[in-house]
Amino acid sequence: MKSFAKLQDFAPSLAIIWCFSFKPERLEGETTLTDRGFDLTFRTADDPSLSLIKYGEFLYDNLIVFSPSIEDFGGNINVETITAFIDGGGSVLVAASSDIGDPLRELGSECGIEFDEERTAVIDHHNYDVSDPGQHTLIVADSENLLKAPTIVGKSPLNPILFRGVGMVADPDNPLVLDILTGSSTSYSFFPDKPINQYPHAVGKNTLLIAGLQARNNARVVFSGSLDFFSDAFFNSAVQKAVPGSKRYSQTGNYELAVALSRWVFKEEGVLRVGEVSHHRVGEIAPPNAYTVTDLVEYSIVIEKLSDGKWVPFDGDDIQLEFVRIDPFVRTFLKRNGGKYSVQFKLPDVYGVFQFKVDYNRLGYTHLYSSTQIVYAERPLTDNHRSLASYGLKDGDVVILRQKENVEPRPPGHFPGLPRIDFSSIAVPGMSTQQPQQPAQHLRSSPPEAPSFPQGLDNPALLRDMLLANPHELSLLKERNPPLAEALLSGDLEKFTKVLVEQQQDRARREQERIRLFAADPFDLEAQAKIEEDIRQQNIEENMTIAMEEAPESFGQVVMLYINCKVNGHPVKAFVDSGAQMTIMSQACAERCNIMRLVDRRWAGIAKGVGTQKIIGRVHLAQVQIEGDFLPCSFSILEEQPMDMLLGLDMLKRHQCSIDLKKNVLVIGTTGSQTPFLPEGELPECARLAYGAGREDMRPDEIADQELAEALQKSVEEAAASRWYQENQVIEPGRREREFSSATSDSAPRRTTCALL
């Protein structure tokens, strides 16, 4: 295969498949093609030696099919072969006629072109030639109906074009199809010898006379509905519309258009390529290892166009450069500077991996794409004698202070995998995970019997101290990595280091397994499923990274909503929870407020929510003082509730309360008064812990199971005690029956309640 990049040295090959009714001697363009440097090969459509591929290689660069009525190609050529030729980057020129066969019709469908039925023709009763025999199928197409693309149809104004053949329509869902030459608004496609009894296949400007296609791989295809369009007779014929007063032209524009189309479809025109690409800081000549924020950079690219077999600089004023991470951060036009295009711009104040991207896609030209990836990181301020102003820092800029650790080289074989520590994505704020740059002495000594560790997050001793000093990170570690948390709390540094190293080795094994899966048999369903899961996990990690960068506030902790109130004159800090169904109070709080005497134990039960609690009973009515308002309220009394009081939806809805987070107040709708929510420092102790006092090392599901088991066990014990009491009372049988009957008739039935909080 000869590429157009070496057109001046090698002649590209071109195969012409023709029919007997259209002999190659009549193709005046043959001499033009030879003069343009093509090696021509002629074959009849039914030649048994026809072949496009041999030993897996294409035999030709381009293909001309001038056999519209063929029903079966000879040799090993068929529609699938020609389609594969196009998919491989080959270019094809096809001419059809009213006598069109199924192969060309199928080839058109593959390329987004639909031919009309056999024996139909394009008819125009207003734009036909004076030599038309009477069916008005010898169409005169004005040059105004051509596609406005000089690269495809030529630059000079053309004389009217003669056309006689079948009409086409383009697939509206295929954006790659080009309407090169359309009929006039009075044209249509139908059987010329039959009356019109149904809507024509193509009407008006939708009628395509010549259509084209440039595939995404830059392969090009041109379909002409007329084989006569390329004939000597049409090239040399005079043309004049059969309209009184119309101008007569001594020659049609067919030849000029045919030459322009052939130059485009065979990639002699409209071919672009990328030359040298460079980028660097302004004032420098070489690209740095990494750029940093607000750097002034210069990007340049050389773009060339193929012209008469030689590469020459391309002249365009609409070429854009994009500076892209996920979305473009900068989009600007490139200015031509001599033989290249360049632009200077300031990098945005965002870190990451970026690309210089040029994506140029214009009508008639091959798709031009260039992408250069760069690393975009912070700039270390290494000179202690320079001021911040000399580095270009100003008010509003961010300076990150990072502790620089110097370590000795670690002996080989000690703790493999430690440089990439991962304990379930727990990051310690304020610490750097980058590797030290220069070896030196330890900043602090280790015991003689302990191995030598680097200082930083790779040092198990330092990592242990940091986690123990941060209760929040410690609670997260207990939840997400229990084995490592257990080793940490054991106080044994050797055990902690061992578990840490084992987890790193396990992570390394998983990484090796992942690499093995990518190289596995692509038809292995298990391997593909694991690859899919790995891709899904990568998407999750990328989503989390973006969230941490764009919305870091979503990872912060929210202070719970508490207010000050009084119950029976005793101060209480109440939790406002609009998601709870009912208002609850702990037994300890009820005893402090002296309202246990009002508890109706018939409403006992078990409350389920985040955990379970035993309901002792219910206080049907009590007054809660909020600011200066006294509000009637009812409570369910829980036995071991850590928070004193919870105002649920029943109380909030009854008094039309609303939570105003902008003002940080609870508004009592029935009275109009407001009470502020408590700051974090005034919250009760249970609201500052992860799961309540004494349960820092338990997960929510474990707490729920434990509480449910305890509540059920207490219920069983109380039932057994009640039975024992009744069975061991010494009373007369008759009196016992009377008392039981009296209790049954006079007392309300005992009710059990299960509240979903």
TrEMBL record:
Report the residue ranges that make up the Aspartic peptidase DDI1-type domain in this protein: 552-660
Q: Which InterPro entries did the record assign?
A: Ddi1/2_HDD, OST48_MD, OST48_N, Peptidase_aspartic_DDI1-type, Peptidase_aspartic_dom_sf, Ubiquitin-like_domsf
Q: Give all residue intervals belonging to the Ddi1/2 HDD domain.
A: 458-523
Boundaries of each OST48 middle domain copy? 279-387
Residue ranges with Polar residues bias: 431-444
User: Which residues belong to the signal peptide in this entry?
Assistant: none
Name the chain's protein.
Dolichyl-diphosphooligosaccharide--protein glycosyltransferase non-catalytic subunit
Q: Cite the source lineage.
A: Eukaryota, Metazoa, Chordata, Craniata, Vertebrata
Per the record, the gene is DDOST
